[in-house]
C-alpha cells in the first residue's frame, strides 16, 4: 500500500494568530477531556478518514515572518481522495481556520476566495490539494503497512494473548506442554475462525515495481551527481592539451588538499580519534569506487553515444570510443571539483554563527511541555531559517534529495537503522524555500527521541538540518553539529511550536510493537511451521 506524507503551510494574518490558536484548542478539546488521549466526539469524526495514520494542526508564531498555519498528514493512498475525506470530517472547521490565513498572490488566490467568502459552500479539498507541499526528505517507519492492516494485526495480537492465557477454571493450559510447531498449529486453528484473513497470502509491503523504482532513482541520482561534478573537467579538456590539463588538475587538488588540512580540524572536544589503514581503505572504499566508476562509464557512455553520433556524424564505434575517453577525462577532474566544493563549504562553516542559548518563550515552553510526552507516542513540529548563499541553496536540495532516496533503500524493515521509535517524519521547505520545516510522529519522550538521534544518527541529522541558521557548528556538512547534544536540543526547542492538535489512529502502539504484530501475523498466516521456525516465531508472542 502506498503511503503518503504531505503538509500544507499557509501564512496567517498576524491579527488572527490568537484567534486561530483558540480554534485549534477548541478542536482539540472536542476530542476528549482525558489527557491520556481517551476516545471522544472528535475521534468519531476522524473515522470518516479511513486511510489516516497521523494528523496535526499547528500554528507557528512567526518571529521573523508572519505566523504560519500547517496541516501535516500521513495517510494511505493518493492525496485527492484523502482531502475529500478530511473535508467530509472537519471541512467547516477548516474553512473557519482558512479565513484566518492570508490570500495567496498566485492563481490559488481564486480558490482561496471561493472557499472563504461569507456563506461559502465551495469545497475546500481542491484548495488544500493545490497548496500541498511535497517533502524534501521523508521517512515512513512501518513502511508498507496500511492503517487497516496495523489495526487488524493489533487486534490479532490481543486475541493471541487471551487465547494463550486460557480460560479461568478450564484446567491446565494446553499450550504449556506442546512443541513449538504444535503451539503454532493450535493457536492458528483457534484464531482462524475469528480472523479469516489469516487464510490469505500476506500482501507484500514493498512491491517489486516499488523496489525496482527505489533502486533506479537512487542509481540515477548518483550517476547524475557524478556527471555534474565532472562537468568542469569535461569542459576544460576541450580547451587545453591533455598534459597541461593533468598538471592543472594535480596543482589544484594539491592546493585544496593542503588548505583543507589546515582549516578542516575539529573543534575542541569534538574530534574522534581514528586509526588509518590503507588496506582497509582500499578494500572497503577504493575497490567499490572503482567498480562504480566502471559502471558509470558504461551506463553514461551508452546514454551519450547516440547524442555524440547525432552531433558529430561519427560511426557508432567511433562515437562510443570518443564518449568513453571524454567521460574518463571528466572523472580525472572529479576529485578536484569535490575538493574545491568542500573547501568552499568549509570556509562558510567557519564563518557561520551559532546560538549557544537560543531564546525560548517561557509561556510557549510550558504549553509545549503540557501537551507533549503522551506515552507511548509523541509529536513535534519545527521551523528554522535557512542560511543564505548559492552553495547552501544547492546543498540543501541535492543533500535532501540524496538522503530521501537513500532512506527508501536502507529503512525498509520498519526501523531507521537501530532507531525503533519513528512512525512518520519529514522535512519540507516553506516561504519560497527560505525556511525549513520538520515534523515527526514518534514514540517515547521528546528528550529520549533526540538522544536517540544524537547517539545513533547524528550524521544524517546534521546533513538534514545544518543549513539552519544558528545550528551548532558543523564540519564538512555531516560532522559535529548534532553531536553537540545540549546545544542542539536548545536550538531545536527554540524552533518548535505547541502541538495544538495531534491525532493518531493507533495511539497505544509503538513502531516496534507494530513490527512485532506483523511478525506474529505473518507466522499465523502460514499453515505449518517447523519446530525451528516456530521457536523463532514464538519469541514474539
Write the layout of secondary structure elements.
Blueprint (H helix, E strand, L loop, with lengths): L2 E9 L5 H13 L11 H6 L5 E9 L7 E9 L2 H20 L9 H9 L8 H6 L1 E2 L3 E4 L6 H19 L14 H12 L16 H29 L5 H22 L14 H35 L3 H17 L1 H18 L10 H10 L5 E9 L4 H21 L11 E9 L4 E9 L2 H11 L1 H8 L8 E2 L3 E2 L4 H11 L5 E4 L6 H15 L5 H8 L3
Antiparallel strand pairs: 1-3, 1-4, 2-3, 2-11, 5-7, 6-8, 7-8, 9-10
Helix pairs in contact: 6-18, 7-19, 8-11, 8-14, 9-12, 10-11
Short description:
It is built from 19 helices and eleven strands. The chain has helices spanning 17-29, 41-46, 79-98, 108-116, 125-130, 147-165, 180-191, 208-236, 242-263, 278-312, 316-332, 334-351, 362-371, 390-410, 446-456, 458-465, 485-495, 511-525, 531-538; strands at residues 3-11, 52-60, 68-76, 132-133, 137-140, 377-385, 422-430, 435-443, 474-475, 479-480, 501-504. 54% of the residues lie in helices and 13% in strands.
Unreliable spans: 33-42, 270-279
Q: What is the strand content? A: 5-15%
Looking at the structure, what is the overall shape?
globular
Q: Mean pLDDT, as a whole number?
A: 88
What spatial order of strands do you see in the largest sheet?
Answer: 4-1-3-2-11
| H/E element sequence | EHHEEHHHEEHHHHHHHHEHEEHHEEHEHH
Count of helical segments? 19
